[in-house]
Design a protein that fits this description.
There is one protein chain. By secondary structure, the protein is of the alpha/beta class. It has a domain at 47-144: UDP N-Acetylglucosamine Acyltransferase, domain 1 (3 Solenoid). Helices cover 27% and strands 19% of the residues. It has helices at 2-14, 16-28, 32-41, 45-49, and strands at residues 51-52, 69-70, 75-76, 81-82, 87-89, 101-102, 107-108, 113-115, 119-120, 125-126, 131-132, 141-143, 148-149. The chain has a five-stranded parallel beta sheet. α1 (2-14) crosses α2.
């Protein structure tokens, strides 16, 4: 009975599509959103090499779609370029921890990690291997661990 109660609770909080997606993923190991993104971008490596929990805008650029992880509440704007091994997630596994919002025309360098309920401003650039924990102003460039404006 506990499993059914958990399913109903998730259905109420996350909606039908996400609940079915997570349940099927748990039972079969298939990530339906990855499969759909792979069809949209005509890139088979997304299915096996990425964990994308959101539908990306069609204008998103994934030049090397390997090792990209995007949490289910992250938001990605139009014309965003995401390089390989990028993570958009929450800093701790608690349910209340937020996910990042990436606005339009942002470039995210290889290996960047963007964590928490933060906003990456329009036209910003995130340097390779940066760890971004704070908001990034529109049009600015940040790099480093932790990321600072340069």
């Amino acid at each position: 009975m506990g499993l059914l109660n958990r399913f109903i609770s998730r259905l109420r909080s996350d909606g039908l599509f996400l609940t079915l997606h997570l349940t099927l993923g748990y039972l079969t190991g298939v990530n339906l959103i990855n499969f759909y993104n792979a069809l949209r971008f005509r890139e088979h490596r997304i299915i096996t090499s990425c964990d994308l929990s959101i539908l990306l805008p069609r204008s998103t650029q994934l030049p090397h779609p390997i090792g990209i992880v995007i949490g289910h509440d992250a938001k990605v704007g139009a014309n965003v370029r995401i390089q390989q091994h990028v993570t958009l997630g929450r800093p701790v596994p608690e349910e209340l921890a937020g996910y990042p919002t990436v606005q339009d025309d942002v470039v995210i360098g290889t290996g960047a990690t963007i964590l928490g309920d933060i906003t990456i401003g329009e036209g910003a650039t995130i340097g390779a291997n940066s760890v971004v924990l704070d908001d990034v102003a529109p049009g600015s460039t940040v790099a480093g661990t932790p990321a600072t404006e340069i």
